[in-house]
Amino acid sequence: MKLAPIIDPGARKPGPKPAQVDLHRVFFLGTALWLVAAIVCLILVLCGINAVKSLIVCVAGMIIGVLLLTWEHFNRWYYRRLGK
Can you tell me where the transmembrane regions are (predicted)? Predict the structure, then answer.
């Protein structure tokens, strides 16, 4: 193990360049999956199966997904410029 990079930051290798990603697709896909799970849980609740807690978790996942999509919309410029 070499101690030079720990002691002297100038001896470190340069880090990799950040990859340019599209968080909109990721957040939208995750929110869509929570929506599908919520529909399944709603059908189970309507059939008489006790899945109310699961439905609440799915709704919370959709709310978080919408909040993340909103954040991504307003901060897209900041994280997209890091990958250039």
Answer: 26-46, 52-71
